[in-house]
């Protein structure tokens, strides 16, 4: 049965960020993820994880100036030194939280721009090597253009090709079921084909990005398929609750009892 990680950027937002850890644990989650921890001291996050027995499943490396629309620096040739500094910041939080994988966002650039492609390849290789020295995986996530118009990495095939070409043992795919359905469809076949390189999975309904089980995909089938494929990682719940986080947790009920804290990292 999948081990679900509550995404604290989108779920439990009825409370301040640092209070969401307690709420996730009370709801039966044993793992959490979020987009970014950088507004809070690493010790404060580490303390919440320890206090509530939660595993940190994932977070994103610094993305540049998010407020001004930046969504990562990896495909931006002139921003490599800033990316490198951001990776060091991310590693400080990784050490405090014990997270085992980090997501590197690509940034806003044309997917067919040769300079952006060269920059992205260099940044991905450098970052994977750097976080690998700390025993961590690096994950890359294709994101659909409806949610993030102009985002560089908008194709599962392109991500898979790069991961295959670089052949770095700790470089993996972040397979967001929601983005895959919007970008390509045929989600089960892609899960089967790409499973050997998948390092993290995320879920949300399509098209509304709400609770699993409320959209066009058979999410329970996909969760069972992850089991059939032997996926032992986390499934991040990266959805916007339709009408309150707790009120929408009916989908989680069949899985709650099996969320064993000590399994997986
Ligand atoms: O948008 C997503 O699906 C993500 O997982 C990222 O963290 C980027 O926002
Ligand atoms: Mg995602």
TrEMBL record:
InterPro entries: HPT_OtnI_isomerases, HyI-like, Sugar_Epim/Isomerase, Xyl_isomerase-like_sf, Xyl_isomerase-like_TIM-brl. It comes from the Bacteria. One of its GO terms (molecular function) is isomerase activity. PANTHER family: HYDROXYPYRUVATE ISOMERASE-RELATED, ISOMERASE. This is 2-oxo-tetronate isomerase. It holds the Pfam family AP_endonuc_2. Belongs to the hyi family. It comes from Methylorubrum suomiense. Residues 21-253 form the Xylose isomerase-like TIM barrel domain. Keywords: Isomerase. NCBIfam families: OxoTetrIsom.
């Amino acid at each position: 049965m999948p081990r679900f990680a509550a995404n604290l950027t989108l779920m439990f937002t009825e409370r301040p960020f640092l209070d969401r850890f307690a709420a996730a644990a009370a709801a039966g989650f044993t793992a959490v993820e979020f987009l970014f921890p950088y507004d809070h001291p690493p010790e404060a996050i580490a303390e919440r994880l320890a206090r509530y027995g939660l595993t940190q499943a994932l977070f994103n490396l610094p993305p540049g100036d998010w407020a001004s629309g930046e969504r990562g620096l990896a495909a931006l040739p002139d921003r490599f030194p800033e990316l490198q500094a951001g990776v060091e910041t991310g590693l400080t939080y990784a050490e405090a939280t014990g997270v085992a994988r980090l997501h590197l966002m690509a940034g806003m650039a044309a997917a067919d721009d040769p300079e952006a492609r060269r920059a992205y390849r260099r940044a991905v290789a450098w970052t994977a090597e750097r976080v690998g020295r700390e025993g961590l995986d690096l994950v890359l996530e294709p994101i659909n253009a409806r949610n993030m118009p102009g985002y560089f990495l908008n194709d599962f095939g392109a991500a898979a090709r790069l991961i295959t070409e670089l052949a770095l043992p700790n470089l993996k795919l972040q397979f967001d079921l929601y983005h895959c359905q919007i970008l390509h469809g045929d989600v089960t076949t892609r899960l089967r084909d790409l499973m050997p390189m998948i390092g993290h999975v995320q879920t949300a309904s399509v098209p509304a990005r709400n609770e699993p089980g409320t959209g066009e995909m058979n999410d329970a089938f996909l969760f069972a398929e992850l089991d059939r494929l032997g996926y032992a990682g986390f499934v991040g719940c990266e959805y916007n609750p339709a009408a309150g986080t707790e009120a929408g947790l009916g989908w989680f009920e069949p899985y709650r009892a099996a969320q064993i804290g000590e399994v997986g990292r």
